[in-house]
């Protein structure tokens, strides 16, 4: 990713927005210090880039996002079809009797999934149970489903933050703070609460990022789930994602990353009384595959506390649209923020709204470079075709089937 231009103009911009937007947590210096020390003004941002993107350097190939051609357009995904034909269900119950198909922890069940797994494995999480586990699903284990009951969901919770010390004594960082990390493809969840219950960080506090769910695999579908946290709740990291009828709660940059994702019928709530930033979508010309990325919110509702920004740009081509979405009065009139981007009007940022409703939706008061979309402009984002869904989106497993 390009280093931001931290010339005088940008320093001025930072000062101007500082009155309303919290300094990002990685920006430790106060704005007035930025002016007196211009050579160091990029430090906080650079630090954040290092924290969040060092993997890109290590595993560059992994970050390439498949294009429509590679995915096969709307042809049904043959790998997925065969995986569904052989599906099995395992029960996860802390009080259950362990067997080949019953486990007391999610971690134990995932260890049993073979590498290169090619059959759908549904983990039936006992409704109403809290699983205090930190989960990492390796990319070698695709086709995993977490299923519980939307009316009485299982909760998966942990409480690490970016500042939590790992085994090596160093802070684990944003990625490492994640409660449930999914790196494999074809993940599904239905009726589950993903939670990071670390105490809510003060806006701008160092190391306050506390991810509840990180989606790094492609073709993931999340139904009737709750993704619950504060700063940086949902790391929509990479890949094609379908998030439906779910509740997402957070404070600063709480849906972020370079996923190409469709949020359908979701409720999105700010949990801070101060400034809240709903998205930090990352799209950049300099990260392989990132130009394919962007978040589309359809038929969602936005509310909660504080002053809510719809998004701020992580990368010079950040892309977010809201369609038919209800916005409460807490959504600030300007709507969007360019963050570190010097010329948001010409950088490639794509922020738009289409037929949104509610007191926070008045597109006329938005920053000049945000778009009030026409129907033709909105159409590419309106429907699961945006995430090539015809080839891979399946309905949630029937909650009453087993
Ligand atoms: C299907 O699986 C094979 C072998 O794992 C892989 O090479 C191929 O890319 C997969 N196809 C899709 C569409 O993911
Ligand atoms: C994923 O599993 C493979 C095979 O066991 C292993 O080599 C790799 O280190 C694992 N990845 C992570 C990030 O743990
Ligand atoms: C799950 O989603 C469906 C819509 O697909 C909705 O009718 C239902 O109320 C949801 N259930 C819960 C418990 O949120
Ligand atoms: C995290 O949760 C554990 C209990 O699971 C608790 O002992 C610990 O104090 C919590 N840490 C913080 C920082 O809240
Ligand atoms: C929009 O969401 C509501 C539930 O919040 C649902 O009843 C309605 O069918 C959805 N409309 C469309 C067009 O998807």
Automatic annotation (TrEMBL):
It catalyses: [(1->4)-alpha-D-galacturonosyl methyl ester](n) + n H2O = [(1->4)-alpha-D-galacturonosyl](n) + n methanol + n H(+). Keywords: Aspartyl esterase, Glycoprotein, Hydrolase, Signal. It comes from the Eukaryota. GO terms for biological process: cell wall modification; pectin catabolic process. Pathway: Glycan metabolism; pectin degradation; 2-dehydro-3-deoxy-D-gluconate from pectin: step 1/5. Its EC number is 3.1.1.11. The active site is at residue 253. Residues 98-390 form the Pectinesterase catalytic domain. Residues 1-20 form the signal peptide. Gene3D superfamilies: Single-stranded right-handed beta-helix, Pectin lyase-like. It is an enzyme of class 3 (hydrolase). One of its GO terms (molecular function) is pectinesterase activity. Acts in the modification of cell walls via demethylesterification of cell wall pectin. Belongs to the pectinesterase family. PANTHER family: ACYL-COA THIOESTER HYDROLASE YBHC-RELATED (PTHR31321), PECTINESTERASE (PTHR31321:SF91). This is Pectinesterase. It comes from Oryza punctata. The lineage of its organism: Eukaryota, Viridiplantae, Streptophyta, Embryophyta, Tracheophyta.
């Amino acid at each position: 990713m390009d280093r931001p231009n931290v010339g005088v103009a940008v320093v001025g911009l930072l000062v101007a927005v500082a009155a309303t937007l919290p300094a990002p947590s990685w920006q430790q210096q106060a704005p007035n210090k930025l002016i007196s020390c211009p050579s160091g003004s990029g430090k906080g941002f650079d630090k954040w880039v290092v924290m969040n993107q060092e993997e890109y350097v290590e595993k560059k190939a992994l970050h390439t996002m498949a294009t429509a051609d590679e995915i096969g357009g709307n042809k049904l995904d043959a790998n997925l079809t065969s995986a569904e034909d052989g599906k099995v269900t395992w029960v996860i119950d802390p009080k259950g009797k362990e067997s080949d198909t019953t486990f007391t922890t999610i971690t134990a069940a995932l260890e049993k999934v073979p590498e290169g797994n090619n059959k759908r494995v549904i983990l039936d999480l006992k409704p109403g149970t809290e699983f205090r586990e930190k989960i990492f699903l390796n990319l070698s284990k695709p086709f995993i489903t977490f299923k519980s009951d939307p009316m009485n969901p299982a909760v998966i919770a942990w409480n690490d933050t970016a500042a939590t010390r790992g085994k090596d004594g160093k802070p684990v960082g944003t990625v490492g703070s994640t409660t449930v990390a999914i790196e494999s493809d074809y993940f599904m969840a239905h009726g589950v609460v993903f939670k990071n219950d670390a105490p809510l960080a003060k806006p701008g506090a160092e190391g306050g990022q506390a991810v509840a769910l990180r989606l790094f695999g492609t073709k993931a579908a999340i139904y009737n789930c709750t993704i619950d946290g504060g700063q940086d709740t949902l790391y929509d990291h990479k890949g094609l994602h379908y998030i439906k009828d779910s509740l997402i709660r957070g404070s600063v940059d709480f849906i972020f990353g370079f996923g190409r994702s469709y949020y359908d019928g979701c409720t999105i709530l700010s949990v801070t009384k101060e400034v809240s930033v709903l998205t930090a979508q990352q799209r950049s010309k300099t990260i392989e595959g990132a130009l394919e990325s962007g978040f589309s919110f359809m038929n969602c509702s936005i509310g909660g506390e504080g002053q809510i920004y719809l998004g701020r740009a992580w990368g010079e081509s950040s892309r977010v649209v809201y369609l038919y979405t209800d916005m409460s009065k807490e959504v600030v009139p300007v709507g969007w923020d360019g963050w570190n981007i010097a010329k948001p009007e010409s950088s490639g940022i794509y922020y738009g709204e289409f037929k949104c409703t509610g007191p926070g939706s008045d597109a006329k008061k938005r920053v000049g470079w945000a778009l009030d979309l026409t129907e033709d402009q909105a159409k590419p984002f309106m429907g699961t075709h945006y995430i090539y869904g015809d080839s891979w989106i399946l309905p949630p497993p029937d909650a009453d089937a087993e």
